[in-house]
């Protein structure tokens, strides 16, 4: 790896890949050096738009080019496991979009490959690394609001039903849970750990993926969480953390917060502003580069066990609401 600049490659040319590529300009020692798509014209257009010098019409060609030090995988969930393992086996560190894979079995395979090859792997839960979330964790660890008793979090937007769109296509592991429901699940796991009980209900589209998903979780210390995702309405996409001495409110969209409100019992609320460079994706890229520079094969701030357990929660939720993807049936 170049000692001064980390050369990023991107697999996929969709909306999230564009956001990530745009935010790489905020990473002082990283740059986008290559992009790959199965459609060469798409990767060439993407490369031109982001001033990237190399475009490929084959993922394997990019991995073998010697032009990248790390790859960001930004294709639908269905392909995450296959492509992550391909990259890891080629010795290329991986930042893979969330949801990490289709199910916990696939995540386990990815993690095992990372450990066998001793190559870095991390799920791209970018919200984990934005300054607002780090500040909130500091306050909670300092017991500013006492013991957490309840968390509410939601994420929803209105999307017209289209059986061919990524969001509603079961072949592309569509549905609200996999696309956006992971964010409320993430914040509850980050702050409360693993639940001892999960109760979920959902409304399914004609294609069999979930349009709405509501989850209630309880935790061993007596706390609980109510979480919601939907493709049928625009929600506040906010998060409130209730403690025994006060609360923290993260306004919409909490996943990319630049500020939050701390309200301690008997005191006036205090709005705390935080830095956010660009859209906020640069912070996860910086975390990957830090870990690579330190010779780590996983992040100590977002360890692979966290991603494994998060996917296990999603598997259980899908089991309860009745969502099974074709790729899982094929495996069976």
UniProtKB/TrEMBL annotation:
Keyword field: Oxidoreductase
Chain ranges of the GFO/IDH/MocA-like oxidoreductase domain: 134-248
InterPro entries: Gfo/Idh/MocA-like_OxRdtase_N (IPR000683), Gfo/Idh/MocA_domain (IPR050984), GFO_IDH_MocA-like_dom (IPR055170), NAD(P)-bd_dom_sf (IPR036291)
Gene3D superfamilies, A to Z: Dihydrodipicolinate Reductase, domain 2, NAD(P)-binding Rossmann-like Domain
Name of this chain's protein: Predicted dehydrogenase
Family, similarity comment: Belongs to the Gfo/Idh/MocA family.
Residue stretches making up the Gfo/Idh/MocA-like oxidoreductase N-terminal domain: 7-122
PANTHER family: OXIDOREDUCTASES, TRANS-1,2-DIHYDROBENZENE-1,2-DIOL DEHYDROGENASE
A GO term for molecular function: nucleotide binding
């Amino acid at each position: 790896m170049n000692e001064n600049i980390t050369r990023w490659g991107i697999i996929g040319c969709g909306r999230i890949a564009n956001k990530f590529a745009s935010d790489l300009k905020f990473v002082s020692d990283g740059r986008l050096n290559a992009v790959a798509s199965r459609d060469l014209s798409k990767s060439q257009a993407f490369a031109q738009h982001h001033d990237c010098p190399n475009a490929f019409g084959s993922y394997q060609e990019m991995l073998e080019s010697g032009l990248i030090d790390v790859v960001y995988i930004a294709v639908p969930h269905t392909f995450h496991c296959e492509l992550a393992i391909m990259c890891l086996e080629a010795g290329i560190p991986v930042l893979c979009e969330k949801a990490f894979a289709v199910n916990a079995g696939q995540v386990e395979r990815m993690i095992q490959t990372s450990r066998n090859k001793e190559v870095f792997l991390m799920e791209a839960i970018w919200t984990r690394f934005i300054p607002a979330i780090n500040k909130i964790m500091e306050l909670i660890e300092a017991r500013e609001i006492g013991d957490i008793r309840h968390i509410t979090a939601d994420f929803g937007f209105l999307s017209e039903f289209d059986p061919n769109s990524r969001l509603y296509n079961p072949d592309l592991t569509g549905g609200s849970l996999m696309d956006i429901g992971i964010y409320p699940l993430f914040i509850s796991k980050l702050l409360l750990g693993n639940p001892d009980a999960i109760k979920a209900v959902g409304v399914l589209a004609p294609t069999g993926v979930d349009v709405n998903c509501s989850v209630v979780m309880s935790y061993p210390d007596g706390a609980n969480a109510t979480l919601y995702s939907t493709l049928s309405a625009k929600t506040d996409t906010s998060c409130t953390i209730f403690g025994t001495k006060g609360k923290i409110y993260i306004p919409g969209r909490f996943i990319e917060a630049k500020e939050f409100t701390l309200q301690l019992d008997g005191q006036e609320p205090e709005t705390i502003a935080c830095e956010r460079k660009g859209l906020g994706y640069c912070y996860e890229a910086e975390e990957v580069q830090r870990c690579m520079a330190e010779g780590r094969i996983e992040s100590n701030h977002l360890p692979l066990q966290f991603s494994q357990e998060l996917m296990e929660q999603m598997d259980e939720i899908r089991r309860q609401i009745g969502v099974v993807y074709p790729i899982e049936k094929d495996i069976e």
